Amino acid sequence: xxxxxxxxxxxxxxxxxxxxxxxxxxxxxxxxxxxxxxxxxxxxxxxxxxxxxxxxxxxxxxxxxxxxxxxxxxxxxxxxxxxxxxxxxxxxxxxxxxxxxxxxxxxxxxxxxxxxxxxxxxxxxxxxxxxxxxxxxxxxxxxxxxxxxxxxxxxxxxxxxxxxxxxxxxxxxxxxxxxxxxxxxxxxxxxxxxxxxxxxxxxxxxxxxxxxxxxxxxxxxxxxxxxxxxxxxxxxxxxxxxxxxxxxxx
Length: 250
Hints:
The strands form three sheets. The protein has a nine-stranded mixed sheet with strand order 4-1-5-6-13-12-11-8-9, with helices on both faces. A two-stranded antiparallel ribbon has the order 2-3. Strands 7-10 form a two-stranded antiparallel ribbon. The protein is α/β, with parallel strands linked by helices. Helices cover 29% and strands 22% of the residues. The chain contains seven helices and 13 strands.
């Protein structure tokens, strides 16, 4: 049986005017759920308060929160107003933040990537750096210019894994080489999360929930070419196993 895994959508304009907004998820995330986690993907529209989070989570076996070009609005963590031109997605914020809180509280298996790890931290009370590359002592974690391969397939830097943590067990070691395609990043870590991976400059790159169940956030993009990267395959397989366990219990 394939566990049912919800993937919240982004809201984007697909036409020349804002009259044609669509609820979208990039194919690479959908395929990672279907192929690497062995799940049945279900796209969740970003309807905010119109979505019954508790009813939805009662039907799901897992939740996968993806990356996005948009940033979490700093109003949700008491940050300074974003610079002009920053892309936001208020409908996604209104959907994912309560979904994440309820998923963690209900021990629903959860994997959050890039924007997703930032949303997870904010949902649980943490804060973000809006521009990591402007923080003293931090490196530039933004994508390099070029094609999709040049932005996602390159190895940007190493991450150091927490000893005896989940990532160290999955990786079979203490270090991974990862890509880097983000400008925001975790500042103050939320209560209920523990660090699984850190970049050489000190930026938090992965977290795990300290409570019951599978709760994992990753700042890089393990979904890209997941079949070619042993750690990525192991991470999605562990997520899928947690989702299947929940499915069998329900």
